[in-house]
Structure formats: structure tokens, C-alpha cells
Design brief:
The chain is mainly α. The chain has 18 helices and 2 strands. Helix 10 packs across helix 14 and helix 11 runs antiparallel to helix 12. Its EC number is 1.13.11.11. Belongs to the tryptophan 2,3-dioxygenase family. Pfam families: Trp_dioxygenase.
Length: 364
């Protein structure tokens, strides 16, 4: 067994460099503020975890660049995305530590750090781009693109990250390649459509025949039912779907949407369990990003009220605007709209069930 030179804990972790990287500007300007140390360490910890998230994302993105993705890699991707969600939960909880600093404590050093801002977190913007945030979804800041607030070297890297295939686009292509939607003698989409029409017709009759609601209430429920039916019409008609994509109301392609729905509806089939977990984790990551943005906006409101942020944004109002606009996997969020009860799912033909299961024989 090959022997390696002994490693010393402090040297291996680079602690001398790491622990000496907290330079208090308030101290430099002879007005030392005790809580500036906390502010720096919390944000440095964020950046370290962002680095780990990028490390995990890059590995998953590299797996999905290939035309054929081994089933083993789906399992690996699931474990790495799950790690990201655990990191995100930690990042949300970390805000509690920052909130031990009061508004007046922050004001002791706030002027020294202007215009530095979390808005300029280069790694956080990279995460957004790698996940697949559409540049048109970004909230403009002072009518300028977000890249203009970064140093030139970071602007270049951010632009490159926008031009590369994001996880969203790679997952979309992977879904478009999903088999099983059609086979000889079985068209999933036509079978599903018939089941949906039956379900919607039964729901309508339930509303019409309900003896305990007023006519006004009945009409409201019938209108809501028609809206539901309209949503289903869009998923059955590619032209309607493409129209919604054009209006930025949907983003994922027609075939990818079908494949994602098929995976969700038949997720109990052995070979679809890992893809289902994978799609679920993408929604989890998006949801936790939204939760972090919301908690961050609340913290900023608590810390500076309605003052402008250190980076020149409108502070809390700007952060609040980004909460809903920055979802990447909205199509997967909305997938539950198109679920139908298991009891009404079209039964799968035996040949497809065999392909979706794990069958082992003693034959070589």
C-alpha cells in the first residue's frame, strides 16, 4: 500500500488563510462594530455552501449532457440533489443566527460596506443560471441587467454560464427522449385523455346534482370547473401549449411535459421511481430557493425597514418581487393540476409493464 506524507488538520483545511479572512471595515476606520464579525462570517459560510452546491450541480449537469443516461447515474443525481436540499435547509436556518444582530447593531457598520451587497453574490447568480433561470425572469435593478453590477471577470463568467446548457434544458431534453408514451396498440395520451374527460364529466354532474348549494354557488363552481377543463385542453393540444409557452405561461416543451406527467402518474413502476424522485427534488430545490428568498426579504425588512439596500436596491420591496418571479421549474410545480386518481389511470399493457419493471432470469 502506497504511503503518503502525513497531513496536518490546520494545513489541510487552510485554516490560517480561512480564519484570517475576516477584515472588519469598521475597525479599519477606527469605529469597530462588534457585530460586523458575525455579518462577515455568516456570509462567508453562505459562500462556502454555495461552492458546494455548484460542485453538486456541475456533476449532475455533466451526467445529463450525454444522449444516454445510465439508470445508475439517475440514482447518483438523486443523492446529490438531495444533498443540495439539505444544504438549502441549513442556509434558511442560518438566517436565524444573522437575526441575533439587531437593526441598530447593523447600522453601526452599514455605511462602511456600501455598495457591497448580497445582490453581488457571484456564486448565487451562477447557481441560478446553472439551475436554468430564464434571464427574462430577472427583476431589473435601476433598469440595468444584473451582470452590470459585477466585476468584469465575473461578468464574463456569468455570461458564459447563461450560454451553456442549464440543468433545466438538459432535463427537458432527457424527458423528451422518454420512451413508453406510445407502443404498438397503446397510446398513453389518448387513453389518458379519455380518462380525464370521464373524470371531468363526472365532476360536472356532481356539481349540477348537488342539492345543498345555492344557484349562485353552483354557477361559481361550474365556472371554476370550466377553467379546470380549459387547463386540460391546453395539455392535450400542442398548439395551445405552444401558445402558452410563447406567452411565458409555460416553459417546458409539449413532449417533455407529457413525459414528466407519465413519470408522475406511473411512479410506482420500478424503473420510474428514481426519475420521479429526481423530478421531485428539482421542485424541492426550487421551493427551498423561494423559501430562502422570502425569509431573506423578511429579515431585510426587519433589519432596515423600507430603507434602500446597501447595493442600491429598494431593499425589502426588491427582494419580495424576486420571490415568485425566480422559479425555474414552475411547470413541474403545476404538474399536480393534471393528476387523476390511480383508480382511473389507463392500465398499462403487459409489454410496457415488463419494460418498466425489473425482470431477472437465469438465462445467460
Amino acid at each position: 500500500m502506497k504511503k503518503y506524507p502525513p497531513a496536518y488538520y490546520s494545513d489541510y483545511l487552510g485554516l490560517d488563510k480561512l480564519l484570517s479572512s475576516q477584515e472588519l471595515l469598521s475597525k479599519k476606520y477606527d469605529s469597530e462594530a462588534h457585530d460586523e464579525m458575525l455579518f462577515i462570517i455568516v456570509h462567508q459560510a453562505y459562500e462556502l455552501w454555495f461552492k458546494q452546491i455548484i460542485h453538486e450541480l456541475d456533476s449532475v449537469i455533466n451526467m445529463f449532457r450525454h444522449e444516454y443516461i445510465d439508470e445508475v447515474n439517475i440514482g447518483i443525481a438523486v443523492s446529490r440533489l438531495a444533498r443540495i436540499t439539505d444544504i438549502q435547509k441549513l442556509l434558511i436556518e442560518q438566517l436565524r443566527i444573522l437575526e441575533t444582530m439587531t437593526s441598530l447593531d447593523f447600522l453601526d457598520f452599514r455605511n462602511f460596506i456600501t455598495p457591497a451587497s448580497g445582490f453581488q453574490s457571484f456564486q448565487f447568480r451562477l447557481i441560478e443560471n446553472k439551475l436554468g433561470l430564464d434571464p427574462t425572469q430577472r427583476t431589473m435593478l435601476n433598469e440595468k441587467g444584473y451582470r452590470s453590477y459585477f466585476a468584469e471577470k465575473h461578468q464574463k463568467q456569468l455570461k458564459e454560464s447563461e450560454e451553456q446548457s442549464s440543468l433545466f434544458h438538459l432535463v427537458e431534453k432527457w424527458l423528451e427522449r422518454t420512451p413508453f408514451l406510445e407502443s404498438e396498440g397503446f397510446n398513453f395520451w389518448e387513453s389518458y385523455k379519455k380518462a380525464v374527460i370521464t373524470m371531468l364529466d363526472e365532476d360536472k354532474q356532481t356539481i349540477i346534482n348537488n342539492p345543498i348549494i345555492s344557484e349562485e354557488k353552483r354557477q361559481k363552481e361550474l365556472n371554476a370547473h370550466e377553467n379546470t377543463r380549459e387547463n386540460f385542453r391546453a395539455i392535450f393540444d400542442q398548439d395551445k401549449h405552444d401558445e402558452l409557452v410563447h406567452k411565458n405561461l409555460r416553459r417546458m416543451s409539449f413532449r417533455a411535459t407529457h413525459a414528466a406527467l407519465f413519470i408522475h402518474l406511473y411512479r410506482d413502476q420500478p424503473i420510474l421511481q428514481q426519475p420521479f424522485k429526481f423530478l421531485t427534488l428539482l421542485v424541492d430545490i426550487d421551493e427551498l430557493m423561494t423559501a430562502w428568498r422570502y425569509r431573506h426579504a423578511l429579515m431585510v425588512l426587519r433589519m432596515i425597514g423600507t430603507k434602500i439596500g446597501t447595493g442600491g436596491t429598494s431593499g425589502h420591496d426588491y427582494l419580495k418581487m424576486t420571490v415568485e418571479k425566480s422559479k425555474v421549474y414552475q411547470d413541474l410545480f403545476n404538474m399536480a393540476t393534471f393528476f387523476i386518481p390511480r383508480s382511473t389511470l389507463p392500465p398499462l399493457p403487459d409489454d410496457i409493464k415488463k419494460k418498466l419493471g425489473f425482470f431477472y432470469t437465469t438465462q445467460q
